[in-house]
Design goal:
The protein has 147 residues and is α/β, with parallel strands linked by helices. The protein has helices at 13-29, 52-77, 97-107, 130-138; strands at 4-8, 32-38, 87-92, 112-116, 143-146. The longest helix has 26 residues, at 52-77. Mean pLDDT is 88; it is low at 122-126.
Length: 147
Amino acid sequence: MFQHILLATDGSAACDQATRVAVGLARTHGAKLTAIYVVDPYPYLGIGQANPMGFQAYMQAAHVHAGKALGRAAELCDDGGTPPITMETRIVEETTAAHGIAQTARDEQADLIVVGSHGHGALRKLVLGSVTTKVLAEAPMPVLVVR
């Protein structure tokens, strides 16, 4: 049924669960699995004089966090199940998380997006996350929201 699954992760516990579900679906359907991490745009551009050192530090920290989140997803793929799952990874920049997820799914021709119900937001246990809500609105393909 599914040939290409796109997993969006931010390294949160909800995304760990979403990864487990995505891996299971990829294994069941023999689907390709691509995991992405979207780096939030630098929050201080356009406000007074931009400090290039601040931008570089922000991007370096974001890439370190992305590497950890995608590495964690890779660990969850390598659970010893049969058949083994090979996951490709992408880091998406210069866009909002929701748009980056939906656009990457279109570009990669994914037929399913798997996301956690919430990420690192303050109200994460009370409501569906704002990024998840926006992905649901923007994505042209099915979105599986995992709690």
